Structure formats: structure tokens, C-alpha cells
Amino acid sequence: MHRKNRKWGLILILSLLGLCLGLIALFTVINLFVPGQTNQPDQLAVVDITRVLEAQHLRQELGDQVFPGLGIVDIPALIYNEENAFLIGIADPQTGWVKVPQELGRGGEWQTMPPLEAYPQEIYFRSGYDHNQEPDAFTVRVGTAYVGSLPSADWFRLSLMNQFRKDLPGFLKPVFPYSLVASIFFPNSDTYLSMVQHESFHAFQAVWAQPRFEAAEWDGIRLSDQYPWENQAGIDAWQQELDVLKAALKSQDKEEIRQLAQQFLDHRDARRKSMQLSADLIRYENQREWVEGMARYAELETWRLAASDEQYQPLADMHSDRKFKEYQTFDNRWSRELDQMTRMAEDEGDGRFYYSGMAQAYLLDQLHPSWKLTLAADPMLNLEDLLRQALTVK
Q1: What tens digit of pLDDT does each residue of 55-88 get?
Q2: Nearest-CA neighbor of 52 among 84, 87, 94, 98?
Q3: Of 78, 129, 254, 332, which is least surrounded by CB within 10 A?
Q4: pTM for the full model?
């Protein structure tokens, strides 16, 4: 009996070893055909234009449910790849674009592109840029217009794979499953459309609340290096906050949500006291939650509404996009977001604020549904202050 067990154990080990070697060989071959650049960096594909138009359609139809005024603000798009930036939504653009809030000029003259057969009325422009000054995935200004700026879907995937190539040790580079991992981070066009909403919301913030937007960005630039990212006690305390936020977002019981929201605020107060955070660094936390947490909320809430609103219909041209899932993958994205939230405590950078700000916005939807009107009227309010106010009213 023991010999038989050892025999089957050896067969299993050899089978697993063969499977591993087979996968290594498969990924090595696949990697030979993974491109390092986009197919036509000098122009946008039809599907790129279609996605931008669908993102605008989403915002016009659902934007005011996401945040007051978002549906009526005209927000052009700047889509870039490894060589060029493309501008959609401005008829006669001034030269280049401006990086905000530093007011740094970027790009050059805009060249009018030949109309695409699928969109003969859609005028768009191209400008090259210095490779050391790639546009930001954020908002930029063209003339006086704030524009949502982000990479094309293809360049986003390739940039992600290129970053893995850069960071991996040499022996892993030939065999790493770049395409597979990129598809996990960027599985479909729904994901890309939500990214457009995120960056467009930054443009909206710059229009709706320019003084706070600029102050928040300058705080992010000046105070980030002062924040105690590696303080282990702070990391542990942040973990408690994020765990409580996740539990609150998963709860269906209104009273439990209230209790968990209060626990979050109590943990936050205790963490700041124990870490002896200065007023500047407390402001830094609030500013990043206002800028990035609100944008993450807009990104996800637009997707949720598109999935749940039976009246919403995507543009007909989106059905030719094979990667478009008609927003029906929202539940999967939401589950991943909740899981990722509790992994952000050790993140060195402002990624945790994307989640803590987004979570507070969703809790406010539950506890104080008119919070958006209050914030729209007074953009200097912090999300945590609105949450404290919500908990004082039964």
C-alpha cells in the first residue's frame, strides 16, 4: 500500500512539473508575439472614438445622478499613446495643453486629422509630445477648457505590460504571462469607460470648484513626502479603518451601517492622535479623498447606474466593440474593489485615499442621500465632516 501511494505521489509530482514546464513554454512563445507599441500610433482607431463618444453619452445621461451638474458640463477628451496625443471635443484648440496645477506647457500645434469614415462629422486633432513629458492620466487644460486626459485602451494595456517588463528580475521576463496579467487588471471596455469617467470627473472638479481643486493638488505635491507612509503603527491603524469601511459597504442593515461608520470615524480620530499628525497632514488626507476618492466614486457609480438603469441604452456603435460587456460586469468589479480596499493600508502612495474617499461617498448615499447637494453648494466641505453630520441625524 505504501509503495502504491509513493508511486501515485511521484506521478502527481511529475505531472505538475510537466504542467509547469508546459505553461512556461506556452508563455514564452506567446510573449514573442506581444507587441511593444500600438499598431498605428499616428492615429486613433474607430473603436477609440466610439468609446469616447459612449463615455460622453454616459455622462450626459447619468452624470447628474452621480453628482449635481456633472451631466451638463462639456468635458472634452485627450487620448494619448506612446507618440501622440489626440484631442476630441474642441473645435478650434489653442496650441498644446497645460499640466495643472503647475501651469506647465506641453505638446505642440494641433494638427487636424482626416475624418474617419464611421464618424465623418467628428473632428479631432493630433499633437506629438516630448517622450519625457507624457500627458497625465488626470485632467489638463487646453486653452480655457479642462479636459479629461488618459491613455488609449491599447496603450494602457501595453504600458502595463512594459512596466512589468521593467520591474521583473531578468530570469522572469521571458516567461511572465504579460497578456494574462494585463487582462486581469484591464478585462474589458467597461473598465476603460469607467476610467474615462474618473479622469473626466477631475476636469469637472476643476470647473465646479477650482479654488479647492488647485489647493488640493498643491497639497498633494507639497505634503506627500511628509506623510508617514512607513509608520507601522499607522499602517496597522489604517488597516482597521479600511476593514471597517469594507464591512460597512457590505452591510445591508441601516443601523449596522451607522454603527460601522461611527467606528470608522473613531478609529480615524485615534489614529491621527497616536500618529501625532499635524493639521497639514490631516488636511492632506482630506484633500486626497476629495480629489481621488470622489473621482473613484464617480468612476464606479456611473458604471453601477449604467448596469442597473433599465432606461439607459449604450450607443449602438458600442455593440461592434467585442470587449464591451454592456456594463453587466459591475458586480465583479465591485467585489474586486472591496477586496482591494483592505490591501491598501501598506500601499506607499495615495492609493488608500482613493478607497477611503470612495467608501465614505457610498456610505453617505446610505446615510444622508442629499449629501451631494450640500457638497455641490459648498465644495470646501470634507467627506468625513459630511459623514459626521449624517450620523448626528436619525
Answers
A1: 999 999 999 999 999 999 999 999 999 999 999 9
A2: 87
A3: 254
A4: 0.91
